[in-house]
Amino acid sequence: MVKKVQPVTHQPLITSKNISSEQLMNDLHYQQSKQIIQSLLNKGLISTTEFNEIDTLNKQSFLPLLGPGNIDTSRF
Asked: What Pfam families is this protein classified in (predicted)?
């Protein structure tokens, strides 16, 4: 049995823009802060409401890039 293989294209699925080092650092800081508050939530040190409030403030402070790590946390 022979499988037909399609050639791979290297075209992005979406158009990308130039990302500055400041934007990358903001995203990194947001992701780090999210890990910290997620840990606090998992340990029961903050409530779900507090988690969502802190996450909203962090999004305003760090302006994270859109991506897989930037999900709507209001359902937690």
From this structure: SHOCT_2
Domain locations along the chain:
21-62
The answer to whether residue 57 scores a pLDDT higher than 70 is: yes
Residue-wise pLDDT for 5-34, tens only, equals: 777 676 655 555 677 888 889 999 999 999
How many residues are present in the chain?
A: 76
| 53/42 Cα distance (integer angstroms) | 16
CA gap 42, 21 in Å, rounded: 31
Distance of CA 13 to the CA centre of its chain: 18
* Contacts of residue 29, Cβ cutoff 8 Å, sequence gap at least 6: 62
